[in-house]
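Pasting as-is:
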Amino acid sequence: MEQNSRNSILTPFLLSAALVLGVMIGLFAGRNSVDRRLRSLAGEGGGPADKLDYALSLIDRYYVDPVSTDSLVEALMPDLMWYLDPHSVYIPASELAEVNMPLEGEFDGIGITFNMATDTIVVLNVIPQGPSQKAGIQNGDRIIRIDDSLVAGRKLPMDEVMRMLRGPRGTQVTVSVLRKGADELLPMTIVRDKIPVKSVDAAYMLTPEVGFLRITTFSQHTHEEMVRALAALRGEGMRKLIVDLRGNTGGYLGQPIRMANEFLPADRLIVYTEDRNGDRMEEYSDGKGAYRDVELAVLIDEHSASSSEIFTGALQDNDRATIIGRRSYGKGLVQQQIPFSDGSAIRLTTARYYTPTGRSIQKPYTAADSDYEQDIYNRYLHNELFSADSIRFDDSLKFVTPGGKIVYGGGGIMPDLFVPLDTTEMTDYYMKVAGRNILYRYTMEYADRNRTKINAVKSVAGLDSLLNADTDMFDDFVRYAGRNGVAPDARQIRRSEKLLKALLRAYIGRNTPLEETGFYANYYVVDDPVLKALEVFDRSPRE
């Protein structure tokens, strides 16, 4: 009995021990088997690219939980580019069309400019002969519904609204609009089509002989747009020209080369690039430019980058233009866009560009530089936006133009005439009416009250006539601001009056068919770089 009892106790124990041992042996053997396979696979990899491929393969086959390697690659690609330089980037397939749109010069849509200053989509301008105009949309219409979706009163993000309105050409979208004088919503079906994206934002005669040209990007059509605008301005008597590149972050490399060629005599170096092997590609003017006789001023600021700096540097280094404003951004790296089969792409830095005197405009950076994008903010902290004396130049990066002018490399184009950021008219009163959007809302309501006259404006002179006739506008605005929570302050209003009046007229001008031309034709009276350019032209010798 005792023996049986002992057996009854030992037998389960031995069975359990055997089971545990078996499991352990199995695990050990299995682990060794997996380990051998993993080591074998990893050992097959040769270089760094193989290592990355095999790492993804191992994760896909052996990681403890299911993982989408496609998602891993999407997450890794931006960091991979970031470790190269600040301007090499990965563009997912879902974003490529949107990113390329300003460069391609067109997109598929309905052809309106709109604003959502409140919680309603307000049509500011309808592109002539575009899909919306053909469907009957008018300036000042409020879009209440898009297809079956209510959009008014919902405070939707701007990008969501654009996604609802845009779509492949030939497709339809139905919008329901509220129009002043109509008793009910007006449904309108719009057939989407190709919509041009303008890169020449404004073009008009500032004085009887001075033209103003604002260029916002360098798309594949910018040179063509510029030539058409200049031909029109010359027909109006242009002999001098202000080219405004402030805020222009660049675009296609070929466009500023073709544009600079319009202003340079023959055989002048415009720009050159060098790749990793030292191979150099030079671009020269051909002497066929139609505007070699036009006196030039170019406006830049801390947001003018890349192609803007190529154009500016070419004219500065050839002593062809007076550069006015603040030091440009400092992007001297050339990217090439390389597509992938899934619709995504990378923009890979393949060369550096240099101005005619040999300056590299690229500001310093290191790989994976987290401080690079803080540069402009650091300029503000170091007082550079307010004083040229705060800028320190490296004499080893000093260059001399053919005309004897000293220019510097090492980070951006330094203007010939520095114009500081001016905040003297930005009183507390101004900050309140601007910051609370009261100023802009007033101009929208003004345009609505005068919609027939606003839509009939065809020229800057016609806009001036309309605005000059309303002698009570500024006082009416002050009363409007008071009703909307900003009490009048006579001293501060006097100090900000010129700026406020200019902005009132400029925003109303933007609401007319003149769009940005209507804005800048009224804003220039408080725009210090433009006024400085006019001074330069006034001092220049007359023929």
